[in-house]
Amino acid sequence: MRKDSRLSRVLHILVHMAAIDRPVTSEEMAGMISTNPVVVRRTMALLRKAGYVTSARGHHGGWQLAQPLADITLLDIHHALGEGSVFTIGLTDEHSHCVIEQAVNAALKDVMDEAEALMLQRFGQITLDQLGTDRISHYLHKS
């Protein structure tokens, strides 16, 4: 099963952007997370639409934060990306008439719904400026 790493990749980029005192190009961001600049632009457009970043074209163009990291939560970014469930585990519906499948799906759904609610609640409590603060400070002062 393939993992969806968009949230962690975007958080990585946003924290880097806060430390860089100039617009950051899609190409630079793509290098940070080993992906294609087109993928970065598509993803950053979602964040721009939500008001978390701005962009400018041209020679000195690029992406910049529109808000301080302290004003943005993990939940904000999760919603901006249009993420559905935080879990990639799915329920089967191949034999929906089977009472065993119905019971299994009901039990799994209850547990996953409860776990997801707790996870999203925590996402709402964590601002981006809190992400690895000690490590980031050490990294920035080392450079």
From TrEMBL:
<protein>
    <submittedName>
        <fullName>Rrf2 family transcriptional regulator</fullName>
    </submittedName>
</protein>
<dbReference type="InterPro" id="IPR000944">
    <property type="entry name" value="Tscrpt_reg_Rrf2"/>
</dbReference>
<dbReference type="InterPro" id="IPR036388">
    <property type="entry name" value="WH-like_DNA-bd_sf"/>
</dbReference>
<dbReference type="Pfam" id="PF02082">
    <property type="entry name" value="Rrf2"/>
</dbReference>
<dbReference type="InterPro" id="IPR036390">
    <property type="entry name" value="WH_DNA-bd_sf"/>
</dbReference>
<dbReference type="GO" id="GO:0003700">
    <property type="term" value="F:DNA-binding transcription factor activity"/>
</dbReference>
<dbReference type="GO" id="GO:0005829">
    <property type="term" value="C:cytosol"/>
</dbReference>
